[in-house]
Amino acid sequence: xxxxxxxxxxxxxxxxxxxxxxxxxxxxxxxxxxxxxxxxxxxxxxxxxxxxxxxxxxxxxxxxxxxxxxxxxxxxxxxxxxxxxxxxxxxxxxxxxxxxxxxxxxxxxxxxxxxxxxxxxxxxxxxxxxxxxxxxxxxxxxxxxxxxxxxxxxxxxxxxxxxxxxxxxxxxxxxxxxxxxxxxxxxxxxxxxx
Amino acid sequence: xxxxxxxxxxxxxxxxxxxxxxxxxxxxxxxxxxxxxxxxxxxxxxxxxxxxxxxxxxxxxxxxxxxxxxxxxxxxxxxxxxxxxxxxxxxxxxxxxxxxxxxxxxxxxxxxxxxxxxxxxxxxxxxxx
Lengths: 194, 129
Known about the structure:
The complex is a heterodimer of chains A (194) and B (129).
Chain A: H1 7-21, H2 25-47, H3 50-67, H4 78-99, H5 124-133, H6 137-148, H7 153-160, H8 164-182
Helix pairs in contact in A: 1-2, 2-3, 2-4, 2-6, 3-4, 4-7, 5-8, 6-8, 7-8
Chain B: H1 3-21, H2 28-49, H3 63-70, H4 73-92, H5 112-128
Helix pairs in contact in B: 3-4
């Protein structure tokens, strides 16, 4: 998959944002079609709620429109910046849910029944979504950015504002946790042993 | 890495790949809302940065010049003066000496005709009452 963080795209995005700041709505259209799908995908996986994910996506792009005149082209890629804004918005929402008791418990003891076991057996994507929902939000974000958005570890470090080593640690723990939750359902998910 | 760990990794990677492939596109409503925000933010910036309209010549608020301007200049002053003079003349002259009817109204004398007109009105009121 072509990375939207390639050098040419980064420069082009900065140019588009500059043209938008000058009033060019066609530039906003290009930026929207290029970045909104990716922001929405991250938000969906983080929040597990389509309507909330759309709210986050719209809010993230709105912040981009507002900052356009002050955008410093060499400072960050538009895509990275949007991922960062969306990630923070998602984490804020998850934490607010937890405060009012709506969010799934982040750390579940071994052997405890999980949300995964209540999902449709044949729905692999739902099984993964359910398992993702049980991860702490930073592990969840790292997995979504690495394995669903296919960002590199340095890009993820930039988005999350942490070191590359911290990203690798989050990913390692997250994969172990996901495997532990999904391995018992390997057969029903169609991943039989040879 | 044990065989189970390899199998687990393969399972996870397959699940990730399927999820990536099935990612739905943003709805038209969402894209429209985003573009609507873009247009609104642009319009707001344009309104703030629009040049101010050229200021009209400052109006004189005080003095004889302002008063003249208020009544339409020297032409207006002429008309006003004429009206004032006529009004003064009306106020001082004896109208009866000229046999003039003021305001188009005839002087009503105390005649039976006028009294009948008055009582007739009240008769109508009584009938209606």
